[in-house]
Amino acid sequence: MLRLRFNRTCLSPHDLAICGRVFDQVCADENLDPLDPDAETLAVMVVAIFRNVHTSERELLEAVRSRRQKAAGSGHWYMSPKSAQRF
Questions:
Q1: Short-list 22, 28, 34, 5, CA closest to 62
Q2: Is 56 helix (H, G, I), strand (E, B) or coil?
Q3: 55 beta partners
Q4: Cα dihedral angle (25, 54, 14, 68), rounded to 10 degrees?
Q5: What are residue 3's DSSP bridge partners?
Q6: Which H/E stretch holds residue 19?
């Protein structure tokens, strides 16, 4: 189901489940330990994209992968929470 995401402070259990599945998939794809500091950056990115983009779970996963690839290609690995709000 597609729904418009607004920059809001609360996420529903359904929203959190979507973000969690995307986070888990990207961690698995990148062999990233979910407790690693880079995983925290990933989590911020997943939620920021989810909250600010009209998206399905599949589209969210694609958007996160795309952002991660761009960041890897540019040599930038860190995304501050403030920077993530722009997504």
A1: 22
A2: coil
A3: 3
A4: 20
A5: 55
A6: helix 13-29
Q: How far apart are CA 86 and CA 7, in angstroms?
A: 10
- Beta bridge partner(s), residue 76: none
User: pTM for this structure?
Assistant: 0.74
Q: Which two tokens stand for residue 79?
A: 């995304």
Tokens of 75: 């040599």
Structure tokens at 52: 């600010």
d(CA 26, CA 82): 21
Distance between CA 51 and CA 56 in Å, rounded? Answer: 12
Question: What pLDDT tens digit does each residue of the chain (87 aa) get?
Answer: 455 545 456 888 999 999 999 999 999 999 999 999 999 999 999 999 999 876 799 999 999 999 999 888 876 544 444 444 444
